[in-house]
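Section 4.2 – Deliverable D4.2 (structural model, holo form)

The reporting period included a commitment to supply a predicted holo structure for the target in complex with magnesium ion. Inputs used:
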Amino acid sequence: MERPIAFREDRCKGCALCMTVCPKEIITMSSRFNTSGYKVVEVRDEVMETCTSCAACALICPDYAISVWRKPARDKKGEVADVHYG
Amino acid sequence: MKNGKEAFTLPGVLADIPTHYCPGCQHGVAQRLVAECLDELALSEKAICIGSIGCSVFIYNYLLVDSVEAPHGRAPAVATGVKRARPEAAVFTYQGDGDLASIGMAETMHCANRGERVTIIFVNNTVYGMTGGQMAPTTMVGQRTTTCPGGRCADNEGQPIKMTEIIASLGGSAYAARVAVDSVKHVRAAKKAVRKAFEAPLNNLGLGFVEILATCPTNWKMTPVQANERIAAELIPYFPLGTFKDVTELETIEGPEVAE
Amino acid sequence: MSTTGERVLIKGNEAICRGAVDAGCQCFFGYPITPQNDIPEYMSKVLPSLGRAFVQAESEVAAANMLLGAAACGVRAMTSSSSPGISLKQEAISYMAGTELPAVIVNISRGGPGLGDIGPSQGDYFQAVKGGGHGDYRQLVLAPGTVQEAYDLIRKAFDLAFAYRNPVMVLGDAIIGQMMEPVTLGSATTPTNVDQDLGWNLQGKGQRHPRLLKSLHLTDGALAGHNIRLRDKYESMERDVLFDNFLVDDAELIVVAFGSIGRIAKSTIRALRASGKKVGLHRPISLFPFPSQELDRLAASGKRFLTIEHNLGQMVEDVRLAIRKHADSDFYGHLPGNLPTPEDFEQPILAALGVRT
Ligand SMILES: Cc1ncc(C[n+]2csc(CCOP(=O)(O)OP(=O)(O)O)c2C)c(N)n1
Ligand code: SF4
Ligand code: SF4
Ligand code: SF4
Ligand SMILES: [Mg+2]
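Output (structure tokens):
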């Protein structure tokens, strides 16, 4: 499964600002706490596909907790034609 | 798992460490924008950061450039000394509203008036964050703080100071803008303003100044989301966003000759 | 800049400027106040013509913080002022001491407290020597007694500032500043440090790791460690103690006086020697480090002491502390508001000698 967005949970302070700017409204508060004691946000697997990689969440995040990747380009057969980074 | 190129990258000059700021504090965004501009303009090797006293006192832990700590309010004077000693350096200050607009008002005004070729990043969160939320020169009328518990009263404490307008009115400033980081659109505009504020002094045009309206959820006694909403609801109507001065577009500006 | 060996007739304030320029002073930051105005005026003429920086600051607070900035870059930089302005510089001096920055501060002091007057006074001894700013710190203090010394000591001040990475104050007064005397100038070869990598100064990081200059120490034990290191540094300054002994060997009474007063007292002593009075002079030139060991040595040999100052008794406390194992010191304080003459000190010295007049 492609995951265009990832949260660095150790950095997240649960401020929820990213939730307010996501045009797809797919970022939600999880029930997990990180080691600093902050409740962290997440994008659940079932909605991950809808992420457009717009990076709005990363731009507003005061704690550099969000990584966003562009969706890879695909060839005619639907195979990923872009470079894989990880 | 991760595919394709990053749609968002952190600037290399920004230390990739957790910040000491409270949840939702927009000092984090402000310093990231500074770092992005330092990287984009390839300034990190010749930048000298003048830190100030306030919640951003540890700015030097995040921006990986040569730094010196200034006494409370004196960053523009320290910047003047640094720039006069090292004219080739890209010198900038990063200051809060108590630091810049109260105790450091004289240093700020005269640094701008002399047209020191430095950049001032001014983070206005309408409160003394570090000392626990006392009234600042930029505190809104009616805003409750620990030293105006009944709310700031214009009769007694005056009106909040509009620094960008003042700086724009001074002969030595080349660029003065007020921005916010409460929405994606505003963050993008803020980035452009910070960049221009760095370019103006480097192009020998005068001082570059950006006021960034920012939240202090902790001392505003609000959730980060409520605090962020307050920026548009209460602050921007009084502190209008925009570019108040920009001589960077002009063709020729008379100025002291730069040594070859 | 001067040619080695050139002899000129100049005022003390100009000697300070010429010494600073010859010492490679790259930046000067000042603010007008009498009786030191000749200094910023001279520097505003000369420094720009040498491609160096002069800034008239908006206040002494700003001037001292500009100095902090230039010092952080590792260039030779200075500020000058007079008493009320020096009070305003204390914040930056404390920060520079805490951050270990080399800087030179000139105080052509005047009468106080408050606005006082514009005449000579030594009322700033405590402020200069005990630390007028906050925190546990010291600055080196050099007190010239002649115009030649003003020239020589300002040059030394820069060397000491960089040797110890510490603020150095040159403490003069309206007498030293305004008096004209012939001065032999030295060579003007000292570098301004502009391009030098001193291992700590800010230049923009280039390819190396970023450097940080600060006085904040929050981690456990960090400030205590910093304070201990600073104390050790201050103690090591003892090796740079400076003083002038005049006819002390056979003296029964030693007059202790610094700066212009030391020089005036020397004339009194010369006159009294002519009438057979066994009196000598000990003139501390470095007020910090204070010549305590030398005073102790003199006291151990059975001398008596009279401290003369142009105030109501400040340095005398350090003299008494230095000689406490063997002797005490009498005190004569000449009040500010008028210029003392050698005759003014005659009676106090005779009285201390126990001569009835
Ligand atoms: C001379 C001096 N006075 C007072 C203080 C205490 N102090 C530290 S930070 C601060 C105000 C900080 O407010 P601001 O500049 O708005 O920065 P913020 O924390 O809000 O980002 C004050 C008054 C100090 N450090 N030094
Ligand atoms: S904006 Fe950043 S810190 Fe805040 S909740 Fe989202 S990921 Fe966490
Ligand atoms: S990248 Fe855009 S769509 Fe994806 S989670 Fe962030 S804000 Fe939402
Ligand atoms: S007190 Fe306010 S300004 Fe300081 S870190 Fe917390 S939220 Fe930010
Ligand atoms: Mg503030």
